[in-house]
Amino acid sequence: MATAMQPLTQRSRQVSNKKMTFMERIYLPAILKGMAITLKHFFFVKAATVKYPEQKRPFSAIYRGLHVLKRDDQGRERCTACGLCAVACPAEAITMVSAERKKGEEKMYREEKYASVYEINMLRCIFCGDCEDACPKEAIFLTDRLVPSDYTRNPFVYGKEWLVEPLDPALRVDVSKRQTPEVLKFKGQKQYSHNR
Amino acid sequence: MILTTLIFLSVLLLVTLGVAAYETYGERKVAAFMQDRVGPDRAGPFGILQPIADGVKMFMKEDFVPATANKRLYFLGPAIAMTTALLTGCVIPWGGTMVIGDFTLNFQAADPEIGILYVFAMVSIGVYGIMLGGWASNNKFALYGAIRAASQMVSYELAMGLSIVALIIGTGTLSLSGIVSGQLDGWWNIAAQPLGFLLFLVCAFAETNRAPFDLPECETELVGGYHTEFSSMKLGFYLFAEYVNMFISSAVISTLYFGGYDIPFVDQAGLTGFWITVLGTGMLFAKIIFFIFFFMWIRWTLPRFRYDQLMNLGWKTLIPLAILNILITGLWNFRTELLALF
After folding, report:
1. Do A35 and B298 touch (CB under 8 A)?
2. Could you tell me if A50 lies within 8 Å of chain B, comparing CB atoms?
């Protein structure tokens, strides 16, 4: 016994299949109306285009783009190759090889252990920012820079030479914009705030 | 005399190709503006070198021939499309007659008595380019496109021819220069033939395979239609032929219905014949450019017709209307003779 079908939402509309009137059937009034609309756009509506390389749209403060491996204020690499970012990474884009700091390298690496190899495969990376959240040393951040395009796959595996920020203080990558109150509140919940 | 004609034809060829090249640019710009975009703006200021970049790109592409294609017809298709598109230009009166000293230059390469029929003949042969290309590709999408092109041409050429018949009843001549000179002093033919003009315009859209009648090459259904398998300059020829056809169609519409190179009231301006000729040619090109814009305007306004709608419109609407138009025109033009019968 078929019952009347109940609509799941209130969005269904009765459609009418009525015969077109004469004015509708000769199409021309509707065509003229459409042409008036396109002509209005042709002359009066300004293009919405952003001419990219010259003109850039402002990114959100917490935009998640190309990663950076931060140095501390003395220019030492913060990363200790703990591997938490690699564990957190849902795309398994991060690999690293850890090494022990030798005598005389105290100026280069902040702690006894460091990453001798740190690679992110930008083709795998989904830019979720979990690595940033996972990092106990405030070492990896996503920035508002973009990963440039290329013709082959290999250049997309970014090693330390691309990821670690330059030593020169003037060339450091500014991630302070990302530290919005919400972000700091979230990070405050981390148990390992000893690093700050 | 032959030399002058040859030079004129060469200039005409160059102008046609130049206009067609810049139509591609214009099309992209018009489309962009109507869609609130900027359009090509990288090659040269405002992107005006874009057609050259496009041409270079077309030439550099791999010239691919499908293994199962009918080689000869595959080569013949684009050639026919391009050749016939270019051939129509030589009967159109591009201006009056220029007299410099004892040297006269007629702005019409050839003035056959049957000028308008010649244009029709060339346009009809043009469809062979599309059909042969689509058939020779040995690809079902291309074949569909070719079949659609053929049936569309058959349906709309009839209405087009009938709408011209009504015009010819009024003008009394098939020669294009005769049709223009008939409009020089009096009204333009659009005043006498508004319905005929509308029918001719609609059919011109269908004949040039332009939206909303671009079924032979609709991307959504047929990949690329008849030129699916074509690449490099063969594809370029097809696309170019379409733009040349658009240019020629605009010229024919201007000539038949909008006075050709006639500028209203120019004979009262007190200009010399030389300047009237120059300005007249400029005026014709202004009209042509308007109609080219109109073609693009329509293309970026209307969605494509469905195949059955296309056939309905052609056979059940346009052809009866064209016959009605002939009837009315005939009755009006021969009213004295008819009244004398009673």
Report:
1. yes
2. no
Q: Are strands B97-100 and A157-158 parallel, antiparallel or unpaired?
A: unpaired
Cβ(B156)–Cβ(B172) below 8 Å: no
Query: Does any CB of chain A come closer than 8 Å to the CB of residue B38?
Result: yes
Do the Cβ atoms of A35 and B30 come within 8 Å?
no
Window A:71-130, CB contacts with B under 8 Å? none
pLDDT in tens, B60-115: 888 888 888 888 888 888 888 888 888 888 888 887 777 777 777 777 777 788 88
CB proximity B334 to A under 8 Å: no
The answer to whether residues A110 and A77 touch, using CB atoms and an 8 Å cutoff, is: yes
Contact A120, A94 (CB under 8 A): yes
Chain A residues within 8 A of B298 when measuring between CB atoms: 31, 35
Is the Cβ of B36 closer than 8 Å to some Cβ of chain A?
A: yes
Can you give the pLDDT of all 196 residues of chain A as single tens digits?
556 677 777 777 778 888 878 877 778 888 899 899 999 988 888 888 888 888 888 888 888 889 999 888 888 888 899 999 999 999 999 999 999 988 888 888 888 899 999 999 999 999 988 898 888 888 898 888 888 889 998 899 999 988 998 888 788 888 888 877 877 777 766 554 444 4
> Closest Cα to residue B30, out of B47, B17, B44?
B47
DSSP assignment string, chain A: ---PPPPSSS-------PPPPHHHHT-HHHHHHHHHHHHHHHHTSPP----TTTS-PPPPTT---SEEE-B-TTS-B------HHHHH-TT--EEEEEEEPPTT-TTTBSSSEEEEEEEEETTT-----HHHHH-TTS-EEE-S--PPP-SSSGGGEE-HHHHBPPSSGGGPPP-GGG--HHHHHHHHTSS-GGG-
Q: How far apart are CA B70 and CA B333, in angstroms?
A: 52
Q: How far is A64 from chain B (nearest CA, A)?
A: 28
Q: Contact A47/B32, CB-based, under 8 Å?
A: yes
- Taking the Cβ of residue A33 and every Cβ of chain B, the question of whether any pair is shorter than 8 Å is answered with no
